[in-house]
Write a structure and sequence with these properties.
The protein is of the alpha/beta class and about 350 residues long. The protein has a single domain, classed as TIM Barrel. It has an eight-stranded parallel beta sheet with strand order 2-3-4-5-6-7-8-9. Helix 1 crosses helix 2 and helix 3 runs parallel beside helix 4. The two termini are about 20 Å apart. The protein binds N-carbamoyl-L-aspartate (NCD) and zinc ion (ZN). N-carbamoyl-L-aspartate binds next to loops.
Length: about 350
């Protein structure tokens, strides 16, 4: 007789950093997030970016229409900061429950960041507003200076820009998004209760070698780019430490296969389809499965001042192989081709499709 499969019950998690895209692709990718997560902080780097309350409300409706009816998924919208955004518009959106947070992209740092902030000094009135109303600032923490090596851009951002910003705005709530370095993890761990960080599944699983294993591997290219092994180990330690400053944010960033496998391929890893299974594997490997629920379902809402979810999900200890490619139906009923994170690999845990059983 075989042993019954192990089961792990958790409060339903939230994803505190995801790209759901728009148009046809939104329809194809949003169900993967809604299947696992109750809420998600949705990034505003559309083309054009989400900079007004009206644009965010319209986008929220398109997201709601793209997820299965009755799945109980709540998208939490963000405002894309530009040099000229009006602080009054942000405050109006926050008070109306449309904007949950603001996203700071240094200009040209990543996909659709051309309209981002060119100099932090230009948004001082915005930062003062966020500080006063208690609205979180979500930071893509990389310098864009071409003279700085790409593998050093996060650590240099923390020292040159983030530390002085926090000194100038001591009451500002800041999430340093998708951290990739030991320096960032140390900075956040010692930064006090107004500073937190999200950690992606891919930065817990891969180091920079993955991009060059046996050839050029665009499916492992994302921004901030994966770093050396010592940084991956520091991130695993931070995520599984039980420190409430670190919580789940996938940074799932889908690009169609042909846009990734190109002479100038796009940055981004599509990890949404198996995200919670991917995190569960890391926590199990680190002997910290009992800390998964807090990282995935408690520390995020605590930082954002929201209640944790009451529903539960079940993970079952049943190994399964992730498909090499996914063909997902877009809004027009056409299949779009995407390569999921862990393509062709075995994952130890499977999310039970029946919910909590
Ligand atoms: C993101 C995207 O494609 O929108 N890409 C990525 O590599 N993570 C942008 C971002 O979060 O940097
Ligand atoms: Zn992102």
């Amino acid at each position: 007789m075989s042993n019954p499969a192990q089961r792990l019950s958790l409060r339903r998690p939230d994803d505190w950093h995801v790209h759901l895209r728009d148009g046809a692709v939104l329809q194809a990718v949003a169900p993967a997030t809604a299947r696992q997560f109750a809420r998600a902080i949705v990034m505003p780097n559309l083309s054009p970016p989400v900079t007004t309350v009206a644009a965010a409300e319209a986008y929220r409706e398109r997201i709601r229409a793209a997820v299965p009816a009755g799945c109980g998924f709540t998208p939490l919208l963000t405002a894309y900061l530009t040099d000229t955004i009006d602080p009054a518009e942000i405050e109006r959106g926050f008070n109306a429950g449309v904007f949950t947070a603001c996203k700071l992209y240094p200009a040209h740092a990543t996909t659709n960041a051309a309209a981002g902030v060119s100099d932090l000094a230009r948004i001082t009135p915005v930062l003062e507003t966020l500080e006063r109303i208690g609205m979180p600032l979500l930071v893509h923490g990389e310098v864009t200076d071409a003279a700085i090596d790409i593998f050093d851009r996060e650590a240099v951002f923390v020292e040159r820009h983030l530390a002085p910003l926090l000194r100038r705005h001591s009451a500002l709530k800041v999430v340093l998004e998708h951290i990739t370095t030991a320096e960032a993890a140390d900075f956040v761990a010692t930064g006090g209760p107004n500073l937190a960080a999200t950690i992606t599944p891919h930065h817990l699983h891969i180091n920079r070698n993955a991009m060059f294993q046996g050839g050029l591997r665009p499916d492992f290219y994302c921004l901030p780019v994966a770093k050396r092994e010592r940084h991956r180990l520091a991130l695993r330690a931070a995520a599984t430490s039980g420190d409430p400053s670190f919580f789940l944010g996938t940074d799932s960033a889908p690009h169609l296969r042909h846009a990734k496998e190109a002479a100038c391929g796009c940055a981004g890893i599509f990890n949404a389809p198996y995200a919670i299974e991917s995190y569960a594997q890391v926590f199990e490997e680190e002997g910290a499965l009992e800390r998964l629920e807090a990282f995935a379902s408690l520390y995020g809402p605590r930082f954002y001042g929201l209640p944790p979810n009451e529903e539960r999900i079940t993970l079952v200890g049943e190994a399964h192989t992730v498909p090499a490619r996914l063909h997902l139906n877009d809004a027009a009923g056409e299949a779009v081709e995407l390569v999921p994170f862990h393509a062709g690999e075995l994952l130890r845990w499977r999310l039970s499709p029946e919910g909590d059983v």
